[in-house]
Write a structure and sequence with these properties.
α9 (301-313) runs antiparallel to α13 and α15 (444-469) runs parallel beside α17 (496-512). The longest helix has 26 residues, at 444-469. The strands form five sheets. The chain has an eleven-stranded mixed sheet. Helix content is 38%, strand content 23%. A hairpin with a 2-residue loop joins β1 and β2. It starts with 6 loop residues before the first strand and ends in an 8-residue tail after the last helix. The chain is of the alpha/beta class.
Length: 620
């Protein structure tokens, strides 16, 4: 049976959805003990219930004030503020919604109420407000800021949506992100989650690489520690298709549109047609023969370039010595060329049989094929581009000077990628339920490439599978911490084409991904630095303390479910306190997120007192 409500006042004026309440008491208790329950007092931010006959209207307190009824003059002689009954207290309320009568037990006693009487919100009403009384599966996130009520969030409405978690450094956003997914993986749905969903975490600061993070064992979790500082880095698995994406590589290599991009596209097209190492060897030895035959019209430096490319590949010195000798001593204007030991190797601009044996073409082919076969996919691409530069020197020498500056960039970028990327035919068995990609030890090229490469790959593959089956029987969840690192639309050191390409990928994901069962979770200190297109497509928000006016203005413009009074409280939130709002909730909730002591992200504040204390066992 519902207890009698605690009456506190009556509506005295209404302006739209804001009401003024005259209170019966001039003081307010922070909490009220009422019929065995502790009710939150009518302080700013608290819920109250307006009784309009049999209708219960839920509102929140947005402001409070004191009125001196007797002191109506500014003259000191009429100062009556200290007399009994001089002061009256009032509060302003903003209506949040209506609780339907059928939501309450029909056995609740009828309590006679005067019109528009205001009462403290009961525990039963709070249960309805915070969604405790519901049949859908939920997870615990924390306790309500004022009432200390356990807050559960609906799994379906939250995780089947795009989520934004924002807050200044140290405000607790990493803990909130981890808490949400920790509770999800500890729920009764875990077995089915493992079968039907995959989660990818892009971790720029190495906060989620702990052994027990997210409460998962190694059987369900894979951590990729990506490092360009060592040759022992873990490697991200990608397919050959995404390594050879000409748009991506053109941007990564900073290729100029006029000459370098056409060269790169042409080279990648030829490279994609190479099916085996023998094809590569035939192609490059054929190029060598052309250089030797066309020696009259080709700069002799071109042969040196071919020799240099073969040395980069790792060809034995003995196999290329005949080429070096020929290049040093042959008279290139003659139709007949003799080797240093007197053998006729070229006659009437044709290579003789003696010449073929002298230049060791068959051995060169075998060596080229062997070295190419042993190389990683990324090294193969680099080796091919080096030989392709020689091809340009032979057939389009005017372009050579334009592409040479890019070759050095290609060497550096592919060298870094080779440490952190492994190419496979497919990625079916390469990733587990949860995959954490830590980029804390990666350089700038890898840091900006890997998130985009992985995101595009898993999105395209998942989209293709769903499109083929025409049913969503699996979901993918991409979680990006410190998302401003790759989703900013501010052009700083990067070129415009790079910014446009990476943003176009993520904007497509966030605009189209939901229909394919692909969802984004973004966490950031600076929401204003993230593309407004991306932020505007988020469905649910977890907002920690933010003080920057630009960030606050963005949130105000992109979150229609956040009312003004809640918005004004954001800069005042403490560590771990968050306002939750969005499509999954009827109204904004202020929550203290529970802190997991046994396992949590590596983002705790450093205690300088403990660090500087001469006694290492001291508590500071």
């Amino acid at each position: 049976m519902e207890s009698l409500p605690k009456k506190i006042g009556v509506i005295i004026s209404v302006d739209g959805n804001v009401s003024q309440v005259g209170l019966y008491n001039t003081t307010n208790d922070a909490d009220v003990f009422w019929y065995g329950n502790i009710l939150s007092g009518a302080k700013v931010g608290a819920f109250v219930t307006i009784h309009q006959n049999m209708v219960k209207i839920i509102a929140t307190v947005v402001s409070e004030s004191i009125i001196d009824q007797q002191n109506i003059s500014n003259l000191d002689i009429y100062d009556n503020r200290y007399k009994q009954n001089s002061m009256k207290r009032s509060i302003s309320l903003k209506v949040k919604g209506v609780i339907e009568n059928q939501r309450f037990n029909i056995t609740s006693r009828f309590v006679p109420m005067i019109g528009n009487e205001v009462c403290l919100t009961t525990q039963a009403e709070l249960d309805l407000i915070y969604g405790v009384v519901q049949s859908a599966p939920t997870i615990s996130i924390g306790k309500s800021l004022l009432e200390g009520k356990d807050i559960n969030i609906p799994i379906d409405k939250i995780f089947a949506s795009h989520i934004g978690i924002f807050g200044n450094t140290g405000s607790g956003k990493s803990n909130t992100l981890h808490k949400m997914y920790y509770e999800l993986f500890q729920s009764t749905l875990k077995t089915y989650i493992n079968q039907k969903s995959q989660f990818f975490v892009i971790d720029f600061n190495g906060e989620y690489v702990g052994k027990s993070m997210f409460g998962l064992s190694d059987e369900d979790k894979e951590i990729f520690n990506i490092s360009t500082r060592t040759d022992k880095s873990d490697k991200i698995i990608i397919t050959r298709k995404y390594l050879l994406d000409p748009d991506l590589l053109s941007i990564l290599f900073d290729a100029k549109l006029g000459t370098q991009v056409p060269f790169l596209r042409s080279a990648l097209k030829v490279y994609s047609d190479i099916k085996n190492p023998e094809d590569f060897a035939d192609l490059e030895v054929g190029l060598l023969i052309s250089i030797i035959r066309e020696r009259k019209s080709i700069d002799r430096v071109t042969l040196e370039r071919w020799i240099k490319a073969s040395e980069i590949l790792g060809i034995n010195k003995e196999l290329i010595e005949p080429l070096e000798d020929c290049n040093k001593h042959a008279e290139w204007g003659n139709t007949d060329i003799y080797s240093v030991d007197g053998r006729l190797v070229i006659h009437n601009d044709n290579i003789t049989e003696e010449g073929r044996r002298y230049f060791q073409f068959d051995l060169l082919k075998a060596a080229l094929a062997g070295k190419f076969l042993a190389a990683s996919e990324i090294k193969k691409l680099y080796y091919f581009i080096e030989f392709q530069r020689v091809y340009i020197a032979v057939y389009d020498s005017r372009t050579l000077e334009f592409i040479s500056p890019m070759i050095k960039r290609i060497e550096n970028v592919l060298g870094a990628l080779d440490r952190v990327v492994e190419v496979k035919a497919d990625i079916y068995d390469s990733y587990k339920m949860l995959n954490v990609i830590s980029l804390v030890n990666a350089n700038q090229e890898v840091t900006r490439l890997i998130p985009m490469l992985v995101s595009k790959m898993i999105y395209d593959i998942h989209k293709s599978q769903v499109s083929a089956s025409r049913i969503v029987n699996k979901t993918v969840h991409l979680i990006i911490d410190e998302a401003h690192n790759i989703l900013n639309d501010i052009n700083k050191n990067n070129r415009d084409d790079w910014k446009d390409y990476r943003l176009s990928i993520f904007e497509e994901i966030i605009k189209e991904g939901r229909k394919f069962g692909f969802y984004l979770t973004l966490a950031s200190q600076r929401p204003a630095d993230i593309s407004i297109t991306i932020v505007s497509q988020l469905h649910n928000f977890f907002i920690h303390r933010i003080v920057n006016d630009k960030d606050l203005q963005l949130l105000e413009n992109t979150m229609p479910t956040l009312d003004y009074s809640s918005y004004k409280r954001i800069p005042l939130l403490g560590q771990g306190e968050v306002v939750i709002t969005g499509k999954a909730f009827n109204m904004p909730f202020f929550v203290v997120v529970n802190r997991l002591e046994s396992v949590r992200p590596n983002s705790d504040d450093i205690s300088l007192v403990r660090l500087w204390n001469p006694n290492p066992n001291s508590d500071g």
